[in-house]
Amino acid sequence: MKKITAFLLFACIISQAYAWKPQFAGHRGSYRGVENTEEAMMNGINHYGYTGLEIDVKTTSDGVCVCWHDDDLSRVGHNVTIASTKWEDLKDLTLTQTRGGVTYTGKLLSVDRYLEICKEHNIFPIIELKWASGINNNDMSWFPKLYALIQKHDMVDKAYILTSMQKSLEYVRTNYPALKCQFLCYSLSDSNLEWCTKWQINPSISNGGFDILDVKRCKKAGLDVGTWTINSQENYIKHGNFTGISRHRL
Description:
Helix content: 25-40%
Structural class: alpha/beta
Number of strands: 13
Number of helices: 8
Strand order of the largest sheet: 1-2-3-8-9-10-11-12-13
């Protein structure tokens, strides 16, 4: 197993303790390239051999879904707010980011192209919803555009919708029941378990925020358990030994 660093990996599926069949997915693509860009995605596939790719979603002023974590592009060289800017004015900007001592450049990636990459390379997409115009706890009016892209690329049965926004997940579960959902949380509190059980949405819990007893509580409720961030072989083995864990966020 390659040495893992924080935010390098996103997910692995584990079936039984000591009978693992992990599937790793690159967090924001991979650590090689500007995060959430096509270069990072392709390096995740070709260099690391990931079978899944995770992105964050924001929306432009004209309703285009793009792969980015922040509200703006200040970390990569531009004083530009995504929600107030059209895709046409964003797509050709050169983004610059230094990671692990290496400086990369890249372009903003549309979710449409990201899903096309996933389809071309038989990769499962993990789509984390950040608070964005039309995709948030108060307003999900632009989510149908995102779903249309997932549907366009025949990814409805492969895509995972991940977020900490409970009302957004309730909306997705109610209106798009075929999509897999995960609730991003820091611990398995009684209230979190109660909510996940009610909506049958699997929790994705912070590394160190749960133990094997919590896994058993979830399995009793018919839920699988995920965790983030796995950034060492020690943590990989530790959490893999929690029989029943189905998904890790790394």
